[in-house]
Amino acid sequence: MKKQLKQVAEDIIRSITDQHREVQHFDSSPLPDKERLYHIIQDIFILLFPGYFGHSEASFDSIEMRIGYRVARIYEELKPQLYRELIHGCHKGNAGCGNCEKVAEDVVFSFLENVPEIRKMLDLDVKAAFKNDPAAVDFDEIIFSYPGLEAVAVYRVANFFYRCGLRLIPRIMTEWAHSRTGVDIHPGATIGQSFFIDHGTGVVIGETSNIGDNVTLYQGVTLGALNFPRDKDGQIIRRAKRHPTIGNNVVIYAGATILGDNLIGDNAVIGGNVWLTESVPSDSRVVIDNAGLRIATRKHHDSDHKQSEKQ
User: Fold this and answer.
1) What homologous superfamily is domain 26-182 in, according to CATH?
2) Main-chain dihedrals φ then ψ at residue 92, nearest 5 degrees
């Protein structure tokens, strides 16, 4: 058995050293630690929603100490993870900028400075959820239990880092939220204020999607690409606009699929299970023609069944 295991190990090592070099990582730049980033996200949530996460017994008497501690901890924990991505990018491009540590420090500090602005956006998202969901009892329920809000909160954090030029860490963050909530929002998407995802499961928002203000999505909505633009050599042109633009005050109901670089105009309503590959004017309502849909009462159905038994 030992001989067989040794042979297996040698075969694996050979495949690593001789083949498939694209799917391995051996160099002097360690990648960001996913598990540590998951913990950092949870620390960030304590800043975004104090009293809901972390120490629920927090009060205004202790908030200065608790927030100060959390800010310092996020700074110390997040900076080396940003550095890892930055230095990895330099090594991958066969260049050493020598500034990765300073850039990591600047980015994490800038993020912490922007937490009040992110909190302002999330405040509007919570209010949009309460306004548009009659099942919501109060803000506490939405903040503490709505998966759609959790996914949007993580997106708003990840989007900050994406706009700073990072790619790996924002994707780790939003995929963590995806695994927890069933909502898949690419960190590169642009989403306006007062955004609400009801129920959430199965929602997909692609990288170049642009969503306006006061937009509501229901479960199973896809804002995806219809095709992928390619250059003259047939290579995919990355980050080219390929996802929809959604105007202001739009409602998109469950199961709708909107594909391609199309515009859904302001105040439009997109019905459930609609499949769209073209633009829609403002103030439009798009629904599936339900001709052929048959609804029979139970009484009528039962009498038909009894009549067929007599025959």
Assistant:
1) serine acetyltransferase, domain 1 (1.10.3130.10)
2) -65, -35
